[in-house]
Amino acid sequence: MPVQKKTVRPQPKPDQVRELANEISRLALSKKAFDVSVLEIKELSSVADYFVMASGATDIQVRAICHAIEDGLRAKGIKPHHLEGMAGATWVLLDYVDVVVHVMQPRARDYYALEELWADAPKQEMKD
């Protein structure tokens, strides 16, 4: 039986994780995402350190925002650990382990109200 090597991901520094969240916000804004915010959830959950929330008006815009994020980070050697929702593009999740990105159409964002669920998390609105 072949022995599989276990890959250990180097632990990023807290300022590197925050910079990743900021870079994701900038990439989303480059495709005219709106209501972009960063929720710092690291003291509330072990799921991630940050959620980046963004809205796109249509499925086409949501995909464009997600592609901009993926392409921009891939150019720096950063790939998502997990991606889901791209087919319907109502709510797309990009998981970068320490930063989880939620790009949603407004109706889905209002319905799921993640920001209300994480209301105790410090929140920063991101602008161009």
UniProtKB/TrEMBL annotation:
InterPro entries, sorted: Iojap/RsfS/C7orf30 (IPR004394), NT_sf (IPR043519)
UniProt GO molecular function: ribosomal large subunit binding
UniProt-annotated location(s): Cytoplasm
GO CC term, one of those recorded: cytoplasm
Residue spans crossing the bilayer: none
SUPFAM superfamilies, A to Z: Nucleotidyltransferase
Keyword Repressor on entry: yes
Main subcellular location: cytoplasm
UniProt KW keywords: Cytoplasm, Repressor, Translation regulation
The keyword Magnesium is assigned to this record: no
Matching Gene3D superfamilies: Beta Polymerase, domain 2
Task of the protein: Functions as a ribosomal silencing factor. Interacts with ribosomal protein uL14 (rplN), blocking formation of intersubunit bridge B8. Prevents association of the 30S and 50S ribosomal subunits and the formation of functional ribosomes, thus repressing translation.
HAMAP family cross-referenced by the UniProt entry: Iojap_RsfS
Family as reported in the entry's similarity comment: Belongs to the Iojap/RsfS family.
Name of this protein: Ribosomal silencing factor RsfS
Organism taxonomic ancestry: Bacteria, Bacteria division TA06
This protein's encoding gene: rsfS
